[in-house]
Design a protein that fits this description.
The chain has about 120 residues and is α/β, with parallel strands linked by helices. Helices cover about 45% and strands about 20% of the residues. It has a single domain (about 5-120), classed as 3-Layer(aba) Sandwich (Rossmann fold). Strand 4, helix 4 (about 90-95) and strand 5 form a beta-alpha-beta unit.
């Protein structure tokens, strides 16, 4: 069982993602994306095994958050899945170069999400 943090500005998306992960017996923590600073602070306190985050969030853009996680000594190397509604190969490549483990497209298929989590966590 892993601890997974979800950062998404959509309550519906957070609820859906959390529900999928809890069925896999993971501990799920939801972080409100009020600012990058607050998200980083919460992630350091939670110390999750995996971060699942939305790409388009007004207060906490996905590219900026992925970069900040990758540059923070306490969070560097954290496994990350980015969820996005935009299919853009260039953005996907840029995210992967920033250390993002996987990019999945919304609406996320529960089986695809479960498979990605299992692959990334090595379970």
């Amino acid at each position: 069982m892993a601890k997974i943090a979800i950062v998404d500005d959509s309550r519906l998306a957070r609820t859906f993602t959390a529900s999928c992960l809890k069925k896999l017996d993971h501990t799920v923590e939801v972080v409100e994306p009020t600012s990058i600073f607050e998200v980083l602070k919460a992630l350091k306190e939670l110390n999750p095994d995996l971060l699942i985050m939305d790409f388009l969030m007004p207060e906490c853009p996905g590219t900026s958050l992925a970069r900040a996680v990758g540059e923070d000594a306490a969070l560097k190397g954290m496994k990350t899945i980015v969820l996005t509604a935009h299919h853009d190969d260039e953005v996907t490549e840029r995210l992967k170069h920033m250390g993002v483990s996987e990019v999945l497209f919304k609406p996320a298929d529960p089986a695809e999400l479960a498979g990605a989590v299992t692959r990334i966590l090595g379970a």
